[in-house]
Please model this.
Amino acid sequence: MRMSNIINRIISFRGDKVIWFIIAILFGVSLLTVYSATGTIAFLKTQNTAYFLLKRGILIAVCTFAMIFVSKIHYKKFSTYSGLILFIGWLAVLLLPVIGVEVNGSRRWIRIPIIGMTVQPSEIVKIGLIMYTSRVLSLYQESKELLDKAFKHIMIVSAIVLIVVFLQDFSTTALIGLTILVLCFIGRVRLKLVGSVIGGLLMGLVLLIVISNYVQIPGRIGTIQNRVLSHLGINSNEDSNEIYENQIVQSKIAIATGGYTGKGPGNSIQRNFLPLPYSDFIYAVIVEEDGLIVGIIVILLYLILMYRTGKMVYISKKVFPALLVIGLSLCIVLQAMVNILVAVGLMPITGQPLPLVSMGGSSLLFTCISLGMIQSVSHTLKQETEVVEEIEQENK
Model:
């Protein structure tokens, strides 16, 4: 076999072409915006304004390779090893106080030896729990009674796993929990059961916030309370209110001054005032530089991604791959919408990055792994459909 054929087999892009196109566009937006948002910081740190651009480019190349590699794995393997992946993620989160490294004031990362890359174990939990939930639901579709038992099992496992994540990162916990509950509903679990869990969780969170006024509770409850109250404008902590309002005001200024067509690449002013303009508030910089039209296109790209996975669900004859792709895409799109809603001031600050766009290796890597899984299902479904069509033609 020629070397060129081997290379083509290794880097061939399997799966939905539209999704590959969406990924490519978002990568392009990421490179342009990260370069603009980090130019000043990079110059002060290394005397090279392109330092973070080069770093981002290399990371995108590595994660693209990982995505292609995962897309070549048959989706049945994801079902087989879902429990193991979930356990590894849960164990890593559990060990964060011992082996975790602190980044931006939070100990949510583990540094991988030799390569030095930091990884958020909660990202492993996110993928693992979606895989595990999809597997359990697919095994108990025969009756409502079995689905009820499956739902109870999923809720117990989710509680054990997410309580540990909750102590480190509330927004990620909420994102995963909401995805799992929606996935259960899509998987034909009764709305009454799903609704009762949502109601109980909301009541529990409110109770924890109230109790935190009188008793010191470990985890992020105090931070949650401050951000929610600051967002509502009723926080008694004036310093927190001022910092929060300044962040949101700067983001709104960036979006408002961008207009329909933007100020042009590299011409952002608010990047010098926004906290983490290359991550949490990168959407504001996108709109300021490229305009509202591009901002709307970015939103549409995520919605099209959701639509394409919905088509996979429609043609899938098996439950596990259908639930897997809808769960993974739902989590990516929900995260994107949360980041955007924060940027426009409609949600409290959460710290959730914009998938595929925000700077950050951990988020990009596991988003690419998720998309690789989706493309694996897409490729397999396409093959199965072609086989069925051939058999039907032969029978005619």
About this structure: Residues 74-219 form one domain.
